[in-house]
Amino acid sequence: MQVTITPPDWATHILSDLTDWDRNPKPVDGTPEVYELPDDAYFEYAFLDADGKQRPDPDNDTVAENPWYPAARALTGPDYHPDPYFRVDNIEEGDTQRHKLDSEVLDQTRRLVFYTPRGVEQTPLPIVYVQDGTAYHRLAKLAQVAQKLIDDGLIAPAHFVFVEPKDRTAEYVYNPDYRRFMTDEVLPFAEDRLVTNQQRIAMGASLGGLISATLAWKNPDLFRTVVAQSGAFLGTPEQPDFYGSEASWWLEHLRTTPTQPLRVYLEVGTLEWLTGVNRDIASVLADQGYDCAYTERSAGHNWVNWRNGFRTALQFALPV
Q1: What is the pTM of this model?
Q2: What's the CA gap between 139 and 83, in Å, rounded?
Q3: Which residues contact 83 (CB under 8 A, 6 or more apart)?
Q4: Nearest to 131, CA basis, from 178, 91, 195
Q5: 140 with 68: CB under 8 angstroms?
Q6: How far apart are CA 270 and CA 13, in angstroms?
Q7: Cα(115)–Cα(95) distance, integer angstroms
Q8: How confident is the model over 78-132, as pLDDT tens digits?
Q9: How far apart are CA 197 and CA 123, in angstroms?
Q10: Concatenated DSSP letters for 93-152?
């Protein structure tokens, strides 16, 4: 589809999925912006004014569900259809527990949320360890989506442990202390309180996908499956530039290390800067014989994209 966006008189730049938002704003001069987008696209954008303030398009009333950019407006193609499990309402939920963990490794108190599906509290279950836990639990409603998928017989039940970050960039980007916090503190803390069958899934989006993959690869004896939504696999431990780097430690790591006994689900939007590296990693995983699934959607780096992927991601991670 062809989309024409006319910048208002006050706009100096346009921000969108195609500019990595405020990382590469595109100057505008009032001339209409014309985009060729897939017919199934979900596309978000906003403008900057002369004071550098983000402002919405006054000609578009469709507010994007974007917690990072409140001014974002959305456009959808004629073939865009949200996943049937994108939004679930009126679910009879299971058991939610809130905990505080005093971490010796990080010298901080961390908050965790446990979710156990209804009716299986005493059944040994896998545990899905979810990074960016606050966003996945409160904003994206992953527990409710999982409960509905379980109720409909589409996934096997599992516990979910939502781990809240404090400084996600410092923690998620190749940080051995954070990995030790997860393996030496979070896992024992959770598994002393939940009935588990010792199968573990590491799940996250963006940098959360990076730490989930790194955690599993460093500890293949502990984790069975990785779910990385728009994994931020650009950059290296020495130069962690996950926006502008052309290098990928992860890609080289996969090419040069033995195959691990892990299952891997990857997905990415085609309107974000991480498409290429995720495609390359998926290709290497397939060539090396991993049990791997890879999905692309015509969308950007945002929660609408990732929520549209919950069903397929969880069906891979928790097959019936």
Answers
A1: 0.96
A2: 17
A3: 307, 308, 309, 310, 311, 312
A4: 178
A5: no
A6: 22
A7: 6
A8: 999 999 999 998 899 999 999 999 999 999 999 999 999 999 989 999 999 999 9
A9: 9
A10: --EEEEEEEEETTTTEEEEEEEEE-TT-TTS-EEEEEESSHHIIIIIS-HHHHHHHHHHT
